[in-house]
């Protein structure tokens, strides 16, 4: 009897309605016991309801509560008497429980109940088991309702296999389509080459080796071939042919044929340029290389590899005796050795991208190639291997004494060096051949046993053979990071009849052996050269040539990116094209050439320029790149208001956070103290002068307060925070003129000055709104240097003037032999009224120059004549004070005698000159040769501060009363009337007429011109290209911040501050960065300026706090600060082209420096340009000095720009390009000149054929190079172009 159980599964109401509309009339085909699939592709899956441990729904009762049921979808379960069932029925009767099999999983079927809109799962059981022999039978069928979301049909998810197939097909599609697009549009390929990796796929079938029928083997059979005569040592074949060469660098095909595949003329320079510009994969990118030359030497009867020379950038040799390294020098190579090396490498193996993990593997590969090529007798292989794997002795490692002998030779020789490797670890123990042995002494048994040693030991990494070896950790600091090593080993070996050499580039840089190199850096290149005895110096020269080439910037890239021997040889040929030959009769090869101060760029050797047609335009000469660019996008004129300010803010925001982080360097501390003291002193001095000119309306305290306000605001928000705002001479003149104008007309000075400031702010804002700061692009070097030189000279002159003023306060007796008169007696008052006036005037003239003399201009007397007559007074013995008390007068030649002060003036001069000399010495110490570079750099960073501290201490301990720095101790206005009213200025005054507020626009316009020129000329000087600033300019933002500062200063009654040229240059010079990790012999290179805001911010803050540190500042002598003045002006003049051109007047032509403008501009035109510039400078000085016309100083500065424009009528644009800057829009008239030369040249392939080459020589174009001219005329032409060739 068959029992059926129907389990109806009901969806939630909403889903049920949808199902009723969509699924009625559909069938559901059973997939398994819990899933079925409809004809529309949707599935119903109950597997989420399944339970692995027993039934999911347990012991639920029917409507009559007579039976209970347990149910588990999908998976069978056991319960009581039910075994392996889907539904179990349980009935209790008289204390006994009966279990019935109500359905199994295999019987599950699925159907739709269209009438009720339900989905039915039907389970059936053909027979059921009744426990405890119960013969009663339950009903035939049962119906249960289960509401679950899993009854809703849904789309079946894709299987994992389907997903993988879709991904694979999509990847192939993207690979094919994307690859074809890349090949067509990027590499410009056509035909079959548009297929991605066409060479790989076309050669893919050849990667599977088809075994011949007579060599049929089983699937797991391994064939080993140890035939050394065929050069296959330890090769293992697994039915796959292994490629014989490493992975070639990936070359970007530009659509043209590569060299070696066509019959085009061989040009090494173009070949090398193609390699350098085509290979782009990461694995073959060039790194810095440390080259080490080891020569095979004997020691106590044994041989060792002894370090002889090394290169980081320049060559260093071990001096005779091996006690020290030589001074780094430019390598002087033998031309004959270069030719011999090139010819030898043409027949020698060049292995690219060999994958090995130890030195023995590399040596075995080279030996294998030498034997295969017939360069080496196979019987000598063990001997050469044994020699190549000898230990290495480096100069920094001392030999260990009293060490036990680790190995002995066949002749009984010992091994005294603890740092020489034990060759038995390499598997070639019996192959050592003494120098007195011969090839015939070998037996075939020895050869076979030696050569068949397994590689497993080598692969095991047993290459740490010298436990006492330590790397040179001090020297490694001089090597650039991520450098790799080129190990060069040369030596003479017994029984070799011919010379063998080989070059190898490893696939990955690895430390092949711990004592292989002096430093603990991975090896990337190996070069071996062995030869017969008697030619050791020739082999050393080969090694020197290879070591020098490996550190050459261009050849190094060829070594990294070369694909085969042809590329390697092309690199040697290109190197030989660039060398300069020195005549043997005019130069001694033993002389070591000093490294140059500045290494020329080698970019012209890398830039591909195969023809004139392909070259879009000639490269600009490197030497003409200095200066300030007039094509800067920041200086473009725009009709959009505020566009310049917006672009400046947009340019500066990304760097704002780094402006604070970049200040975390010790150099910034020294710069801060130096510039603070260098600006505080001018502020105090300027305040004193301004106080005298304005009757203390603006004095020292106002200047200090102004320095704090402008310093903080400009440092936080300025476009170029390296600028230092401060007092200037032209601004002092302007302030004086405004005050005198108000004083003469009885106007109130501060309110009138306020309106001048407001007009100035209005004009500056108009400049910012209409982007007029872009006009600074018309300021050339002519105007810049004229203005900067004027300010620097003012600093120097003022420093000496202030020093001379000390002599007034502490006069010096320059006539010590002349006795100083001392006769000065008191004369009583003449009571005769007729003589009173004459006596008073005479006494006044005497007393005015005498300290403590009676003020005889007063008509009030202390005593009457009657009282004086009644007193007994000894007038001759009275001093000046008593004489004044008794209404007398001091008279006599001694009354006018000066009061000399001993030693103060001369000691002040010593402090003045000592500060300047120490500052110069400490700053220039970084270019000296004493002390390590780190110490020199730190001393240079704090050079001015150290000079100040040393001189202050000397002054303190000597104890002479020199004049000291005085700073106000109270924070209050200088003028008494302003102390009560406070700092704020009232804009209105009863004394000032209403029209004065409008008329203030005239001086406001002059002050705007002066502020604009002062600020922007200084900004242009700071932003010049030679300073290598990286964070962009901010001319418009600078002017906007200056406008805000002028507004605040006008309200507070403070002087207007603008960019101070000398202080800004001092700030720039104190923050210059130079390379610290420089190669031995290499001069530190200028890296740029440490661009940040913190030093300027702290200078402003400390300037405001100066009144709080008067107890410290009062110990600083003024002569020391005047020495800092002198240094600031002097350092601003150093490096100015105007100063260099002035020295050309007194230098003979043969001693004149090799400067770019001297090469390209006739000397008389240089002198004429200099004279005109000096005349402009003199006119500016005169206008500034004469107070009556000093108001026109801003206009005269503008006039220098007009003079520069007029110079174009006489000087050519080419002349002005070298001695000045070209104005915007001026086309360069230095057109290219093509010289066609048919000069024969000799190639480097060893043949003597002479061909003619047509060559284009472009003026000032370094991209094309001739190939070794025979003609002297062409050689002179070539030398006239500065190409920076490496000298031999």
From TrEMBL:
<dbReference type="InterPro" id="IPR028927">
    <property type="entry name" value="Man-6-P_rcpt"/>
</dbReference>
<feature type="region of interest" description="Disordered">
    <location>
        <begin position="591"/>
        <end position="630"/>
    </location>
</feature>
<feature type="transmembrane region" description="Helical">
    <location>
        <begin position="787"/>
        <end position="804"/>
    </location>
</feature>
<feature type="transmembrane region" description="Helical">
    <location>
        <begin position="1094"/>
        <end position="1113"/>
    </location>
</feature>
<feature type="transmembrane region" description="Helical">
    <location>
        <begin position="1164"/>
        <end position="1183"/>
    </location>
</feature>
<dbReference type="GO" id="GO:0051453">
    <property type="term" value="P:regulation of intracellular pH"/>
</dbReference>
<feature type="transmembrane region" description="Helical">
    <location>
        <begin position="994"/>
        <end position="1013"/>
    </location>
</feature>
<keyword id="KW-1003">Cell membrane</keyword>
<feature type="transmembrane region" description="Helical">
    <location>
        <begin position="1033"/>
        <end position="1058"/>
    </location>
</feature>
<dbReference type="InterPro" id="IPR016152">
    <property type="entry name" value="PTrfase/Anion_transptr"/>
</dbReference>
<feature type="transmembrane region" description="Helical">
    <location>
        <begin position="754"/>
        <end position="775"/>
    </location>
</feature>
<dbReference type="GO" id="GO:0005452">
    <property type="term" value="F:solute:inorganic anion antiporter activity"/>
</dbReference>
<dbReference type="GO" id="GO:0008509">
    <property type="term" value="F:monoatomic anion transmembrane transporter activity"/>
</dbReference>
<dbReference type="InterPro" id="IPR003020">
    <property type="entry name" value="HCO3_transpt_euk"/>
</dbReference>
<feature type="compositionally biased region" description="Basic residues">
    <location>
        <begin position="391"/>
        <end position="404"/>
    </location>
</feature>
<feature type="domain" description="MRH">
    <location>
        <begin position="32"/>
        <end position="154"/>
    </location>
</feature>
<feature type="transmembrane region" description="Helical">
    <location>
        <begin position="900"/>
        <end position="922"/>
    </location>
</feature>
<feature type="region of interest" description="Disordered">
    <location>
        <begin position="450"/>
        <end position="469"/>
    </location>
</feature>
<dbReference type="GO" id="GO:0016323">
    <property type="term" value="C:basolateral plasma membrane"/>
</dbReference>
<feature type="transmembrane region" description="Helical">
    <location>
        <begin position="1120"/>
        <end position="1144"/>
    </location>
</feature>
<feature type="transmembrane region" description="Helical">
    <location>
        <begin position="942"/>
        <end position="960"/>
    </location>
</feature>
<keyword id="KW-0472">Membrane</keyword>
<feature type="transmembrane region" description="Helical">
    <location>
        <begin position="163"/>
        <end position="186"/>
    </location>
</feature>
<comment type="similarity">
    <text>Belongs to the anion exchanger (TC 2.A.31) family.</text>
</comment>
<keyword id="KW-0813">Transport</keyword>
<feature type="signal peptide">
    <location>
        <begin position="1"/>
        <end position="25"/>
    </location>
</feature>
<feature type="region of interest" description="Disordered">
    <location>
        <begin position="391"/>
        <end position="421"/>
    </location>
</feature>
<dbReference type="InterPro" id="IPR044865">
    <property type="entry name" value="MRH_dom"/>
</dbReference>
<dbReference type="InterPro" id="IPR003024">
    <property type="entry name" value="Na/HCO3_transpt"/>
</dbReference>
<keyword id="KW-0812">Transmembrane</keyword>
<dbReference type="Pfam" id="PF00955">
    <property type="entry name" value="HCO3_cotransp"/>
</dbReference>
<dbReference type="InterPro" id="IPR013769">
    <property type="entry name" value="Band3_cytoplasmic_dom"/>
</dbReference>
<keyword id="KW-0406">Ion transport</keyword>
<dbReference type="GO" id="GO:0008510">
    <property type="term" value="F:sodium:bicarbonate symporter activity"/>
</dbReference>
<dbReference type="Pfam" id="PF02157">
    <property type="entry name" value="Man-6-P_recep"/>
</dbReference>
<keyword id="KW-1015">Disulfide bond</keyword>
<dbReference type="InterPro" id="IPR011531">
    <property type="entry name" value="HCO3_transpt-like_TM_dom"/>
</dbReference>
<dbReference type="Pfam" id="PF07565">
    <property type="entry name" value="Band_3_cyto"/>
</dbReference>
<protein>
    <recommendedName>
        <fullName>Anion exchange protein</fullName>
    </recommendedName>
</protein>
<feature type="transmembrane region" description="Helical">
    <location>
        <begin position="697"/>
        <end position="717"/>
    </location>
</feature>
<keyword id="KW-1133">Transmembrane helix</keyword>
<keyword id="KW-0732">Signal</keyword>
């Amino acid at each position: 009897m068959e029992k059926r159980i129907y389990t109806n599964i009901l969806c939630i109401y909403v889903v049920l309605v949808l199902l009723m509309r969509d699924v009625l009339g559909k069938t559901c085909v059973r997939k398994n016991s819990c899933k079925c699939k409809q004809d529309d592709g949707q599935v119903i899956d109950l597997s989420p309801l399944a339970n692995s441990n027993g039934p999911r729904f347990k012991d639920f009762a029917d409507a009559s509560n007579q039976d209970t049921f347990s149910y588990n979808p999908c998976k069978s379960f056991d319960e009581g008497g039910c075994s392996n069932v889907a539904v179990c029925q349980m009935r209790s009767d008289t204390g006994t429980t009966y279990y019935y099999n109500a359905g199994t999983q295999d019987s599950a079927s699925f159907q739709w109940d269209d009438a009720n809109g339900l989905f039915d799962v039907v389970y059936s059981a053909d027979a059921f088991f009744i426990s405890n022999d119960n013969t009663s039978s339950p009903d035939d069928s049962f119906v249960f309702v289960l509401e679950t979301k899993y009854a809703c049909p849904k789309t079946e998810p894709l299987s994992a296999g389907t997903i993988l197939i879709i991904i694979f097909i999509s990847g192939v599609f993207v690979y094919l389509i994307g690859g074809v697009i890349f090949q067509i549009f990027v590499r410009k390929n056509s035909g079959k080459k548009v297929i991605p990796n066409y060479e790989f796929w076309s050669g893919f079938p050849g990667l599977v080796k088809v075994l011949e029928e007579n060599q049929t083997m089983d699937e797991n059979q391994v064939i080993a071939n140890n035939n050394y005569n065929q050069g296959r040592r330890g090769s293992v074949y697994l039915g796959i042919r292994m490629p014989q060469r490493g992975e070639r660098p990936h070359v970007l095909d530009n659509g043209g044929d590569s060299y070696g595949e066509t019959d085009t003329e061989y040009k090494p320079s173009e070949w090398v340029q193609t390699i350098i510009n085509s290979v782009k994969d990461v694995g073959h990118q060039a790194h810095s290389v440390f080259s080490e030359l080891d020569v095979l030497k004997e020691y106590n009867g044994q041989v060792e590899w002894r370090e002889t020379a090394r290169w980081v950038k320049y060559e260093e040799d071990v001096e005779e005796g091996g006690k020290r390294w030589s001074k780094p020098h430019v390598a002087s190579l033998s031309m004959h050795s270069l030719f011999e090396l090139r010819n030898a490498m043409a027949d020698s193996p060049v292995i690219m991208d060999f994958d090995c993990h130890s030195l023995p593997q590399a040596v075995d590969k080279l030996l294998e190639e030498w034997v295969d090529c017939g360069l080496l007798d196979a019987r000598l292989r063990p001997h050469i291997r044994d020699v190549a794997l000898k230990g290495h002795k480096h100069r920094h490692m001392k030999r260990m004494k009293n060490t036990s002998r680790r190995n002995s030779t066949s002749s009984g020789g010992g091994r005294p060096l603890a740092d020489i490797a034990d060759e038995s670890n390499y598997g070639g123990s019996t192959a050592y051949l003494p120098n007195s042995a011969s090839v015939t002494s070998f037996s075939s048994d020895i050869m076979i046993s030696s050569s068949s040693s397994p590689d497993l030991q080598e692969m095991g990494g047993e290459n740490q053979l010298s436990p006492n070896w330590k790397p040179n950790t001090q020297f490694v600091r001089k090597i650039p990071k991520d450098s790799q090593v080129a190990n060069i080993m040369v030596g003479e070996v017994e029984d070799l009849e011919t010379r063998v050499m080989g070059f190898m580039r490893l696939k990955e840089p690895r430390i092949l052996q711990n004592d292989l190199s002096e430093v603990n850096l991975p090896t990337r290149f190996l070069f071996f050269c062995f030869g017969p005895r008697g030619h050791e110096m020739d082999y050393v020269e080969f090694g020197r040539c290879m070591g020098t080439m490996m550190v050459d910037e261009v050849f190094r890239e060829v070594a990294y990116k070369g694909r085969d021997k042809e590329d390697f040889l092309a690199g040697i040929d290109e190197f030989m094209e660039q060398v300069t030959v020195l005549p043997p009769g005019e130069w001694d090869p033993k002389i070591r050439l000093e490294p140059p101060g500045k290494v020329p760029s080698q970019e012209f050797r890398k830039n591909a320029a195969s023809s004139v047609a392909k070259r879009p335009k000639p490269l600009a000469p490197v030497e003409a790149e200095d200066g300030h660019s007039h094509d800067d996008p920041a200086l473009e004129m725009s009709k959009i208001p505020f566009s310049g300010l917006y672009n400046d803010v947009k340019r500066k925001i990304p760097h704002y956070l780094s402006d604070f982080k970049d200040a975390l360097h010790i150099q910034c501390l020294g710069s801060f103290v130096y510039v603070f003291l260098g600006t505080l002193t001018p502020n105090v001095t300027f305040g004193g002068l301004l106080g005298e000119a304005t009757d203390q309306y603006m004095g020292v305290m106002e200047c200090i307060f102004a320095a704090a306000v402008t310093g903080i605001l400009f440092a936080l928000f300025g476009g170029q925070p390296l600028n230092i705002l401060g007092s200037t001479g032209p601004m002092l003149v302007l302030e004086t003129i405004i005050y005198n104008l108000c004083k003469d007309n009885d106007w109130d000075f501060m309110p009138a000055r306020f309106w001048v400031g407001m007009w100035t702010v209005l004009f500056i804002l108009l400049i910012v709104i209409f982007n007029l700061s872009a006009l600074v692009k018309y300021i050339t070097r002519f105007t810049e240097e004229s203005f900067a030189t004027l300010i620097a000279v003012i600093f120097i002159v003022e420093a000496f003037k202030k020093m001379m003023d000390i002599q007034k306060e502490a006069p010096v007796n320059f006539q010590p032999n002349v006795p100083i008169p001392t006769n000065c007696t008191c004369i009583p008052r003449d009571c005769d009224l007729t003589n009173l006036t004459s006596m008073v005037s005479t006494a006044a003239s005497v007393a005015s120059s005498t300290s403590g003399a009676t003020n005889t201009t007063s008509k009030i007397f202390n005593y009457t004549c009657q009282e004086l007559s009644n007193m007994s007074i000894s007038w001759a013995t009275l001093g000046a004070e008593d004489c004044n008390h008794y209404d007398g007068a001091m008279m006599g030649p001694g009354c006018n005698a000066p009061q000399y002060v001993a030693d103060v003036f001369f000691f002040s001069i010593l402090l003045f000159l000592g500060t300047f000399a120490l500052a110069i010495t400490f700053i220039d110490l970084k270019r000296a040769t004493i002390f390590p570079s780190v110490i020199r750099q730190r001393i240079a960073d704090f050079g001015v501060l150290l000079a100040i501290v040393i001189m202050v201490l000397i002054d303190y301990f000597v104890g002479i009363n020199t004049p000291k720095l005085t700073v106000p101790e109270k924070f209050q206005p200088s003028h008494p009337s302003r102390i009560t009213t406070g700092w704020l200025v009232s804009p209105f005054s009863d004394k000032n007429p209403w029209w004065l507020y409008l008329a203030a626009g005239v001086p406001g316009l002059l002050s705007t011109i002066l502020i604009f020129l002062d600020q922007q000329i200084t900004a242009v000087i700071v932003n010049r290209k030679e300073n290598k600033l990286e964070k962009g300019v901010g001319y418009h933002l600078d002017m906007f911040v200056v406008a805000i500062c002028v507004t605040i200063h006008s309200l507070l009654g403070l002087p207007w501050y603008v960019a101070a040229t000398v202080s800004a240059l001092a700030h720039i010079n104190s923050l210059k960065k130079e390379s610290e990790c420089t190669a031995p012999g290499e001069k530190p290179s200028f890296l740029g300026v440490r661009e940040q805001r913190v030093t300027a911010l702290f200078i402003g803050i400390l300037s405001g706090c100066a009144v709080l540190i008067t107890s410290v500042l009062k110990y600083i002598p003024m002569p020391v600060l005047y020495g800092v003045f002198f240094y600031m002006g002097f350092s601003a003049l150093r490096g100015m082209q105007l100063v260099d051109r002035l020295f050309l007047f007194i230098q003979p032509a043969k001693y004149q420096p090799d400067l770019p403008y001297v090469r390209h501009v006739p000397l008389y035109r240089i002198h004429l340009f200099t004279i005109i510039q000096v005349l402009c400078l003199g006119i500016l000085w005169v206008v500034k000095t004469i107070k009556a016309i000093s108001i026109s100083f801003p206009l005269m500065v503008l006039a220098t720009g007009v003079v520069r424009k007029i110079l174009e009528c006489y000087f050519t644009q080419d002349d002005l390009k070298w001695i000045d800057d070209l104005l915007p829009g001026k086309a360069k008239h230095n057109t290219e000149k093509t010289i066609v030369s048919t000069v024969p040249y000799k190639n480097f392939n060893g043949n003597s054929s002479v061909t003619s080459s047509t060559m284009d020589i472009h003026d000032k174009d370094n991209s094309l190079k001739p190939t070794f001219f025979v003609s002297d005329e062409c050689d002179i032409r070539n030398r006239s172009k500065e190409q920076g060739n490496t000298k031999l």
